[in-house]
Amino acid sequence: MDEDNAPTAYNDTNRAFLQAFMAQGTLTYDEARPILAALFSIHGKCFFVTEEEVTEEDFKSYVNAAIDALSPFDYSIVSTKSQTNKDLGRVYVLVNTISDSMTQLATIHSAEEIAYLKRILDAIFETYNTQKQEVLAISSLQAIKLSRPPDGEDRRLTQGGRETQGSAGTGMTKQDAEKCLNGLVDEGWFDKSPAGFYTLSTRALTELKHYLLSTYNTQEDEADEDEDVVSRVKLCWSCKDIITIGERCPKMTCPIRLHDVCTAGYWRSQRSKVCPQCKTPWTGKNFVGERAITTTESFLKGTRRSGAGRQSAASQVAGVSSTEAANDSVETDEN
Question: How many Å apart are CA 134 and CA 242, to the nearest integer?
């Protein structure tokens, strides 16, 4: 952009940029270029600015100005990267620096919807996150089955012995649960894969990072003497961001994980392709995410079968038979 058109103080172009950012929740440089080009064209009045003329320096200057403007309101903008698409570059996320992001979600969702979201998070980080299989994802079928809170002994309790919000409440119909889940995808909190698995989006992993770590992990100084330290939410060894899609050390008890987008750069800097902690040879065939299911022989056999003998990805993750899956489909239609 021509330097003569660059704003010298926080002005209407900055405000419009911030409004566009807040409407989307996340923004990349490529996504910001047409927005800034339009704003520069309006600001300049005498000439038209193409998005190709918008530089990364322009984008960063507007991000930095937005950070300064947001600071008094306890908001900021942080950058991270996509777990699955290295071509996106840095992803900039609007975050609240003081309040729990769950509280922010509660301003636009009902108590039952927040309770439903927490049941989904419990399933992702507890039920489908075992030492043997770190799926860290949930199928449409299993998500809808969580429309109502668990009963009796299955109810999840806080350390103080109270019910968690996910275990409380009366629940919702399966149609409402499906509508809520689709809404969370549209709002950018979940991503849905072609195979039908829901995982937390880049935005959600960034905004909910503190909540996820404090809810599903226990620190050494927090654990009782007879209690094991739990680390259900793991960080990529290379970039230190939360990982729900990537590769894991072949040794099941080893905590080392790497994002797919981090593997190439990381191994280029290493002398040998062995786990940096336990020194087990790194095969690249042990996965975190839906591939922990979709690359198994039982899953691949299921996809080669037809009729009643075939189980969908949903059935595989939910751990139910094809008959049970069919019954759940009937229940969904009836509710």
Answer: 13
Q: Which long-range contacts (CB under 8 A, 24 or more apart) does 208-213 make?
A: 208/101, 208/102, 209/242, 210/100, 210/101, 211/100, 211/101, 211/102, 212/121, 212/125, 212/242, 213/242
3-state SS, residue 51: helix
Could you tell me which of 146, 120, 147, 124 has the C-alpha nearest to residue 137?
Answer: 124
Q: What is the pTM of this model?
A: 0.79
Q: Are 117 and 184 in contact (CB under 8 A)?
A: yes
Tokens found for residue 180: 């809520």
- pLDDT tens digits for range 118-174: 999 999 999 999 999 999 999 999 999 999 998 754 555 544 444 555 555 678 999
Q: How many CB atoms lie within 10 A of CB 92?
A: 25
> In the numeric block, which tokens belong to residue 291?
């591939």
